[in-house]
Amino acid sequence: MTTVKVQKNQIIAKQKEKVKKWYIVQEGTVIQCNSYAKIVLGKNAVIGISEGDRYLCDYVATEDSVLAVFNCESAEDLKEAIHGQESMRSILLRAALGQRQMLLRTYAGFTNLVRQFHSFAENEYSQYENLCAQYHLDEQSFTRMDNFKPLEMVHRAENWEIGNSASLTGSYLEEYVHLMQRDDNLCIGAIMEASYQTRRVTQGIIEMVEYLRYNQDILLAESKNDLFNLFFALAIQAQKKNYDVKPLLNEMDRIAEVIKKLGIYSGKLVDMRMEEYRGYHFETEGAAYETPQAQDGEEEEPQEERSEDCLVHILTYADTEQSVIEEMQELVQKYRDLPDMFSTDAQTFAIRKRITQIFYDTYLKAFMHTVKGEKELTPIVEMFLNFGFMDVQMAGEENANILFDLTEHLDVCKSDHVYTIFEWLRSVYDGRNEPSKNEFDMDYPAYLAEMRKTGKITTEQQKHFMSNRELKVKFEIQNMFTSGNRATYGKLSTFCPILGEYDLINSIEKMLVTAQKLDESLHKIRDIDFSAFYREVQFSDPDKGINREMIMKEIMPDIILMPNAGTRSMMWQETAGVRRDTSARFLFPIFTAVDIDDMMVDTVGRYRWEICRKIQGVHWNDIREKSLTAEYCDYLQFYRKNRELSAEAKEKIKSALLRGRNNYREVFVKDYQNWMKYESKGSYRLNKIAREILITYCPFAKPIREELKGNPMYESALHRLDLLNAKTVQRIQGVYDKYQKAGGRITQELTDNLEYYEL
């Protein structure tokens, strides 16, 4: 166990990072936080005890603090930490029970908060409808309430658990701790049981936090599309007719009070909206009020609500010519009226082709207007840029309303490595990312060089175009976006880029591909195939004796969400450029009814193959240069002569090659899927040769290896891997010792490299 000092506001552990160590707070305090949820951890609290394999929360020092650190990735590590250490048993056991109780109290508080939030919003909207009827004034459309439902918890804490923990920590803690710390197994069992329970409770709190974050705009939103504004507008309308506005102002005061008590809104937003409300002069004293009356003919002929033509709105925003607007309206109408939208006849193909041309031309123009700030971005244009929405009748009115509301919550589809297509193109325009390769595997500089060679542009133009941001975006739209959108849709021959109701076979909420879903799917991959995203990169410090040391570095892929409701994912390119230490690019549909985990395994399998090809270069299929692709090609090319394979195994390989059209990569991807889904659980699906190759180049994580060590099918290969890792660790430690003696500092990337061989 080592001791570390951390400064105020220093991040100790970040959400989604792998839990490798536990930290005991010896001095100072640390905040455990996830959005609104915050818990203060004081002396003898343990960071990591309420987590699983990855952190659910951020941990930040609120003052200069001292932490005791020890490795803890499993119950075995915990057993080693407490063995013969009675004080450690007591500290960890009390921390597990105490932190569980704190989180259960927080859980109970959020449960009440969520219940009150939903009930209050429902009641206030009902009151709004009643007051509109009483005042005989028109209701404003507020579609958010159509889909506002109570939270259905997945990770629930039962009332008996809350009561049990409260009684234990309140009345019987000393007796329980005294009993549990008498034996290592009892102590570890109690700690791990509390830890698993606490993790579930934390996940429940996060569910409630996400529910509040997603729905908080119902009461108060920056866009002013909220309940508070509904009452404000109604009060203004009522005052203009000289009606008594006191009942309306009372409701607004109630909403304002609840908004402040909830504590989930930014102070700046609350102050701005309250100042606007308080600054408006309402006549409430000494006035002779009119009696609200129905307008002539109001009851007989309710005024029909008019909706804007979204297609025209989007095309107009993009400065599309009137003739093209009319053509697009006619094309969309024809497409909607087709007896079979999935037909592949010549007429339907021609309609789709022209719609597609106008769609991408419009997208480029609308995108450029937005990023240049030439026009204000409207929710309808946001729906187009992020979801491919253009027409209400194509998408369905209910779906259109949900998408409209979703534009205020697009952050759920974004993270450091997850982008909507609009955000990705913006990153290209801003220079944060370079354009992707085209279908001919040419990046933007290579494309310009080819254009110059063929005489289509001059050398001067080539130099100018290299830094032209608009041309980079155009290249990305015409290549990666156009091809990737069609490919991720899944049905190439019937693809239409306009989002259609016929593809939204489930609710939008369930089909939406969020950053959280993708991150969880990637974590599942890494928990089995831990080395999937690690690459060898060079470390050099000649002044301290290291000229060239290859170290392992994890480089997570960028995931770009295509604006369609699709069924396929794609590994578009294995690196962002020539350098190996750049992110791969995966494409996923932004809506899908397909299991995301299955899509991710398929995509990572293709990535595994292609990154090996890139690293090996011309030797990718040369068996003299051992690699994943070389050994797989050799195995599939000469399987008929392989005496280690049975006749049945050879027949299966023959069938796999036929299904994959003799493409070795496709056979590997199917084997990789079986490796991840079945072989990792000890269920045999592969033959001996394929298993040997995969366990060599795609080894399982340490916990899975430990479970499979007694299995004769894996025993010898896992033993070889352990020996190789131990030998590598010994060599690295020797290099690091020399480096430190020469005055070098062990950086985080060097530490991560050593830990890689212990995963």
UniProtKB/TrEMBL annotation:
InterPro entries annotated for this entry? cNMP-bd_dom, cNMP-bd_dom_sf, RmlC-like_jellyroll
Coiled coil segments of this chain? none
- The superkingdom of the source organism is Bacteria
**Record's protein name:** Cyclic nucleotide-binding protein
